[in-house]
Amino acid sequence: MSDDARDEETVTVAHGGGTGRTRDFLEDSVVPRFGGDADGLAVGLDALDDGAVHEVGDRSVVVTTDSHVVSPLSFPGGDIGRLAVSGTVNDLAVMGATEPLSLTCSLVVEEGVSVGLLEDVLDSMQAACEAAGCAVTTGDTKVMGSGDVDGVVINTTGVGVLPQGAHVPDAGLSPGDKLVVSGPVGDHGITLLAEREGFDIEGDLTSDVAPVNDLVAAALDAGTVTAMTDPTRGGLSTALNEMARKADVGALVDETAVPVRDSVAATGELLGIDPFDVANEGTVVFGVDAATADAVVDALRATPLGAEAAVVGEAVTEHTGRVVLDTGFGRRYLSEPEGEQLPRIC
User: Fold this and answer.
1) DSSP state, residue 29
2) Region 329-333 average pLDDT
3) Is there a cis peptide before residue 304, judged by omega within 30 degrees of 0?
4) How far from chain centre, in Å, is Cα 329?
5) Which residue range forms the structural domain that includes residue 41?
6) Are 246 and 111 in the same domain?
7) Which of 131, 246, 262, 308 has the most CB atoms around its CB within 10 Å?
8) Residue 40 DSSP label
9) Are residue 199 and residue 272 in the same domain, yes or no?
10) Within this chain, do residues 127 and 208 fall inside the same structural domain, yes or no?
11) 337 Cβ neighbours under 8 A, 6+ residues apart
């Protein structure tokens, strides 16, 4: 791209959507600058995984970071504080670091936000930390002028140590591996949209936002997990497509096997949004060796967050880099959504 074309291009909401436009920006502008090798770096930025892995002495240390923006700040099932802790703990967990050591927290607060609201957010962060078995140990606070930032933005960075040889990439699928989803999909994104727009929807809509490190630990203990990721921005569709593309395999998914709550499905149909395409904040997608898939599902179902875990498909040699959805009436490609359907949800 010429300098003039680069200067004329502007950032759009789609650049933050976690799908194709985000990936293009990272590969074109970020990875060439920061994706090189470094001493002790086992997994770096160029992997575009959920975190980096550093070899420090005889330990493998995982580092991940995320900035959290959500509207409204509070929603059924959680708020931006619970989201910030859970999102970072979950990124550590799906790298294999299920016992987080420490979190940082940077608060960017708009002038005029009530102290009471901010303390409610901090209380939620504290409760989520207790659930995850970690603590915020350092941080920073900035206050912006009225209108300069929308309410509260939280950045959290997480650090965890891997058990010996426990790093699990999102790119580890092999043909024959089973695809396992730990619980219902679409809860977070559909709940946020309904709350934001003030829709009166029959049935309970609640975000799934929660730390999943105990759930991931149960899966790792029960069987051979070859790949895993948390399907946040872009939802299950994007997660499965990224896993297939990175591993150079195809994925065949049984639509009827994917757990979706009735209220989420009905609301998604009403709004014209596929629950497969929206963010989840307490769900994990696993690739599991077929011989241990049943054991992994049983272990997940024994945890509070994994009661509806299910095998939803498998990695195949056909349709390399693509996801094929078997609807029960036929088959079609399951493509990742373009842009960002629901801005400010995670």
Assistant:
1) I
2) 95
3) no
4) 30
5) 35-162
6) no
7) 246
8) T
9) yes
10) no
11) 17, 19, 234, 235, 237, 238, 274, 277
